[in-house]
Amino acid sequence: MGMTWFVIYLSHFSHASKNTLIGLMKMQFYVYIGLQLNAATPATPAITTAQQQQQDNVGPTSLDVHWKAALSMHDIMHRWPKVTVTATLQCAGNRRDGLAAVREVKGVIWKSGAVSTATWSGPRLCDILNDVADIPKEKLHKLLRDYHVSFEADDHVHEDVCYGSSIPFRKVMDPLGDVILAYEMNGKPLAREHGYPIRVIVPGYIGARSVKFLQKIVIQPKESTSFFQRRDYKILDTTIDHTNVEKAWDSAASLGEMNVQCVICTPSEQEAIHASNPVTIKGYAIS
């Protein structure tokens, strides 16, 4: 069984009663380092001991501390370089109307407009992990080859306990991959609908992997167990329908990197144009 190397817990500014926890989880042994998030001032870490865990019934009774640290939102906003990335996020179902024209499909029948581009600002996740995760060099190759980074949202949904997703560890650790923890969009603090106070931005991947309302990050040997990783955002074989889909989920690959997309938005399909007049063609191409 693979080891879970690293866990980060974050909390929203709006939920001041919650603790932010950050630490290393090693098999069945945990270390919890809690701190109160405050938008204006750094928080003071409060380490929970194994004895306190036993008394309070809040966690395992044995503790194997490999690495520990505590981070506040102040750290995230000021400890590492702030970078600005221009990224286009696209719903995995963008242009689903083309599939629906062939056969019945589940989901919103998007045309070509479930896509947008913005500038996002925050630290690179690889900078944070290189600084604090303390991953032994001899283990790095295996992690880059086999491991995943899971993101969990403080966002309650009817399909699961919360929204979650994951991407390969190698994508996160690639400095050219531009995976960031964004707290600004277009030069302003994130709005609630865009994931306030912090979200992950994963350029080049389907929008479902850029998790909003981020509260937890885990480096782990398998993909996220979230419904939205295991039972959604997959392309199934044409022989699969609602009668046999449950047998197909686990063997179908999760969607990650976007394919190249080229779309002509105007003129629209079947729009009449006059051959004697100049025609301006507008659209987009992304990858």
From TrEMBL:
Domain of life: Eukaryota
Domain Oxidoreductase molybdopterin-binding: from-to ranges: 66-227
GO biological process: sulfur compound metabolic process
Domain Moybdenum cofactor oxidoreductase dimerisation: 256-287
Pfam families: Mo-co_dimer, Oxidored_molyb
An annotated GO cellular component: mitochondrion
GO molecular function terms listed in the Swiss-Prot or TrEMBL record: heme binding; molybdopterin cofactor binding; sulfite oxidase activity
Protein name, as recorded: Oxidoreductase molybdopterin-binding domain-containing protein
Organism: Modicella reniformis
